[in-house]
Amino acid sequence: GAGVSQTPSNKVTEKGKYVELRCDPISGHTALYWYRQSLGQGPEFLIYFQGTGAADDSGLPNDRFFAVRPEGSVSTLKIQRTERGDSAVYLCASSLRRSLAADYNEQFFGPGTRLTVL
Amino acid sequence: KNQVEQSPQSLIILEGKNCTLQCNYTVSPFSNLRWYKQDTGRGPVSLTIMTFSENTKSNGRYTATLDADTKQSSLHITASQLSDSASYICVVSAIQAGTALIFGKGTTLSVSS
Q1: Is A64:A85 a contact under the CB 8 Å cutoff?
Q2: What is the tens place of the pLDDT at every residue in B7-47?
Q3: SS3 letters for A60-100?
Q4: B74 half-sphere exposure, CB direction, 13 A CA radius
Q5: What is the Rg, in whole angstroms, of the alpha carbon atoms belonging to chain A?
Q6: Given an 8 Å threshold on Cβ–Cβ distance, is B51 in contact with A42?
Q7: Are B107 and B8 in contact (CB under 8 A)?
Q8: Which of A24, A73, A78 is nearest to A49 (CA)?
C-alpha cells in the first residue's frame, strides 16, 4: 500500500492481558515512530526506530511496554499486563530518514489502533 | 521544559468564514514547526513544515506563520469548508539526538453550514 498501515484497527482486552499492535511503514522508510494519543490530547512519543534498532525509547512509560522492528520494516508494539490506563489510540508513523542536524523529514502517520482495556 | 500550547481549545465557525489558530512554544533548541490536521479516527496529516528562517508557508487555503523570536505560530484557514472540521495540531521539533517532536493538544475546529 501507499501509506502506513496498522493492525488491528480496534483491540479490546481485559486488564492483565498481553497485546501486540502491528505497524507496516511506507516501503523504504528507515525511521519508524510509535505514539500514544489519549482522548483530547496530542500524540505522546513512545519510541523511535532507525532501521532495526531503537534509537530512542525514552517515551516508553514503563517496562510493560516494548517494541521491536527485527527486519527494519514492520514493527510490533507489545504491552504486557495491560492496565485500564493503557487505553488510548496508538499511532505509528514513518519517515524516509532521520537527520540529526535538522529533522525536516515529514512523518506519515497510520490510522492508529484503538486499544481499550476493560 | 519543552512545551507546545495551543489556543483556542475548540472553535466553531460558519462555512465560508476565515479563522486563525494559535500556537506558542518553549522548545529549544528549535528545529522546525509543523501543523497537522487530524480527522476523527484518523492519523495526523501534515499541512506545513517551517524552519527557523521561514516566516510563512501556504498549502492551499491553509497559511502558517512563524515568529521564531516570540516563539509563536499561527494557522490561518481561508474560506472554511465543512471538510475542514478536524483537530489541528501544532508540533515543534528540537535539534537533538532523539525524536524530539513535541505535540500540542490541538484545536478542535467545527465548521457548520
Answers
A1: no
A2: 999 999 999 999 999 999 998 888 889 999 999 989 999 99
A3: CCCCCEEEECCCCCCEEEEECCCCHHHCEEEEEEEECCCCC
A4: 10
A5: 14
A6: no
A7: yes
A8: A73
Nearest CA in chain B to A89: B41
Please state, in angstroms and rounded to a whole number, the distance separating the CA atoms of residues B80 and B77.
6
For residue A1, the tally of other CB atoms under 10 A from its CB is 7
Strands A113-117 and A10-13, bridge-based pairing: parallel
Angle value at C-alpha A18, between A15 and A22, nearest 5 degrees? 125
DSSP of B17-58, one letter per residue? --EEEEEEE--SSEEEEEEEEE-TTS--EEEEEEETT--EEE
Chain A positions in Cβ-Cβ contact with residue B91 (cut-off 8 Å):
42
**Residue found by looking up cell 480527522 in the block:** B39
Count how many residues are written for chain B: 113
Which of helix, strand or coil describes residue A104? Answer: coil
Query: CA-to-CA distance for B58 and B35, rounded, in angstroms?
Result: 11
Which grid cell is B20? 486563525
Element (H, E) at A33: strand A31-37
Contact A55 B49 (CB under 8 A): no
Write the pLDDT tens digit of every residue in A31-82.
999 999 998 889 998 998 989 999 889 889 999 999 999 999 999 999 999 9
Nearest residue of chain B to residue A106 (CA atoms): B46
Q: What is the 3-state secondary structure (H, E, C) of A51-64?
A: CCEEEECCCCCCCC
